[in-house]
Amino acid sequence: MFKNYLKTAIRSLLKQKVFSVINVIGLAIGISAAMVIYLIVSYDFSFNKLQADDERIYRVVSNFSYQGEDNYNSGVPVPLGPAVKAGVTGVDVVAPFYGYGYEGKITVDSANGTPKTIKKQQHIVVTDGSYFDLLNYKWLAGSQAQAFKAPNQVVLTAKQAKLYFPHLSYAAMMGKQVTYEDTLRTTVAGIVEDLQVKTDFVFHDFISLKTADTHKRMIEEYTNSNWGNTSSSNQLLIKVRKDASIALIKKQINALYEKNRDKKYSSSGQTHEFDLQPLNDIHFNSRYDAFDGRQANKTVLYSLLGVAAFLLALGCINFINLTTAQSVQRSKEIGVRKTIGGTRQQLIGQFLTETFVLTVIATLISALIAYYLLQLFGDFIPKEISYSMLFTREVFLFVFALIIVITLASGLYPAIMLSSFKPVHVLKGHEANGKTRGTYLRKTLTVTQFVIAQFFIMATLMVGSQISYVLSKDLGFSKDAILYISTPWKQSASNKKELLAKKIQALPQVKLVAVGGPAPSASGTWSSYMQYKDGKKETETEVFLKNGDENYIDVYQLRLLAGRKLEPRDSASKTFVINETYAHTLGFKDARKATGVMIDYNDKKVPVVGVVRDFYQKSLHTAIKPVAVILNNRMNYNNVHVALQPQQGKSWSKSIEQMQDIFKQLYPDEEFSYTFIDESVARFYKAEQDTAKLLNWATALSVLISCMGLLGLAIHSTNQRIKEIGVRKVLGASVTQIVTLLSADFVKLIVIAFIISLPLGWYAMHQWLQRFAYHTPISWWIFGGAILLTVSIALITMSMQTVKAALANPVKSLRSE
């Protein structure tokens, strides 16, 4: 039976080649998008599935609030871990660990006796055995009981161990030396298997916490009793008991903090509370850092699923529309089949088989399209996702289920409708007269297609407009032709960076050089609380600090509104240049009146010597905050900022090569790297740029699918009205009149779709723009552009058939009458 269905289906599809091609392409686009999106979504949602009871694992995180503004940190104060272990009930495991903030060279023993150097190794932590009580690593050499008992011991993952000692067995690696930053010499005390699941726990070097008892720098960082210092490097994981109350555990942790915290800020309006973040939330919650830096966004993932669903729906709508439109041509076939004994169930089976064959063909084509989609979005999707992942058992099961769903969604209604024709009526031609039963359905589905297409167009125009706005907006400082060079952090106390700056300043293509901290607009922040007393009241403010020497303001062309800039005679942290926002916060509407006032900072009175125009410290997602620019403290900051002369030919490239040579003379063992400020600013909006790229793709595909369906309906409509067109031409109708007649009904449907999509688009755009503290308005041209673009593309698409029909010789169409 199925063999006969298959033969008949293939004959029917070959007979209607144009409609079959339109259906196959529409479905192939939707299926390929679904395949790629399935890979992305399933990849991210499979993170951190570590063990059966991982729902009991939480990370303790910090939530801050000051003057109505919330801030979040994935770290905790150092003493919190031991305090939770000693004083909180309902917890089985307490596992503190600390990021070892060093990315310099690592020296290891080698087979030939010459130490081997490995550079730029991240994800090194300091911890104890409790970390391995929490996460079930498999031990390949050594044991958890012994590995963390003594100082200066390290446990390595298998992959990292093979990097350090490629020719040794795991047993032979035991006792080998690994030296960090030339000062911390450790012994390999254990090898563990890499976690075999996708996870954010990417650490590979585990230095014993006992080392902090002997290593000077680690004593200061990992064993202090300061409850007021919160760093994202200091992390705390816990595993709660099965019957434990999460609310009660949080209450106990916060009570510990209240008992031990510094009461200095008790009246400042600042609050600090701890929360418990579930393990499966770490990969998605951007409020708190993930360990490897990359996090997924559930809203984006769900949006991707929505895009896939929309594109699949558009392909299914095309199929339903074109199949029901052909009902008149197939009505006599159905009548004959029923007359010779065909049952309705057999007819439904026949039509579903045709849909199934089309869907399978579309799926095979979509596998090729998916390859190019993965290439196109290579910088958007996780690098671990590859084309080969399409040929896994899970994806095959997903695609098979998708084929069944699409077959039923696309083919079931047309099959039921076509099989319901009464043979007596269709053989007499009654069913072919007037409107078929699918007319209103086709109009509704066509409107739905263009609602989706116009929504995508509006969203694309809005996102593009906002990205253009943020990248072209005056940020309050110069970002063009400026780069910064990072010098080694471990040598920040030396005068080498001042010498580096001096030598770079001597290059002919360099305009000005400054030494300081981050650029005016940077992802990281440094802030402190400052007080100002005007004799009547005290104003305490969180102030963000920018650190630079006397050239810093000039390099970035910060506009001075009052007072003076920093000068070489100003000692570190003894004078401030503040921004307008801080001057206004202090109560000065006129910036000139803010100069000379004294600010309490670190128990010192510091004078304000100047006020600069506001500039954005971060992206436009964040409002401008109070800022103080202070003189560079060379002990802590290690960036050299370089303003270049206008480029002539390849002059910048030559100058950068010269800077690299100077850098290598001073830092022969370090890698030279530089960043242009305009590029770093653009990276603030990578998520929006990725969204724009996704929307451009989704918009193009949705418009393509919709217009292909429209073309199919236009072909059907003109074929049905071929004799009417001939009569009108004989009676004197012009080509323009006939084209207008054939296009008018479709244009009406597009206008109706626009009316429906307009409020939906406005609401979605309004919600998206709330992510920005500063944004472009929702302009009328976005909506006008959407309808104009849609109508234009639709008319061009339909004209391929309507103009052809209008130009046809009426004698040919009327001859058969």
TrEMBL record:
Q: Which Pfam families match?
A: FtsX (PF02687), MacB_PCD (PF12704)
Q: Where is this protein primarily located?
A: membrane
- Keyword Transmembrane attributed: yes
The protein's topology relative to the membrane is:
Multi-pass membrane protein
Q: MacB-like periplasmic core domain: from which residue to which, for each copy?
A: 20-255, 446-628
Single GO molecular-function term? transmembrane transporter activity
Report the transmembrane regions from the record.
Answer: 20-41, 300-320, 356-374, 395-416, 450-471, 694-715, 746-766, 778-800
According to its UniProt record, where is this protein located?
Answer: Cell membrane
Q: Which PANTHER family does its entry note?
A: ABC-TYPE MACROLIDE FAMILY EXPORT SYSTEM PERMEASE COMPONENT 2, MEMBRANE COMPONENT OF TRANSPORTER-RELATED
Designated name of the protein: FtsX-like permease family protein
**What are the leading ranks of the lineage?**
Bacteria, Pseudomonadati, Bacteroidota, Sphingobacteriia, Sphingobacteriales
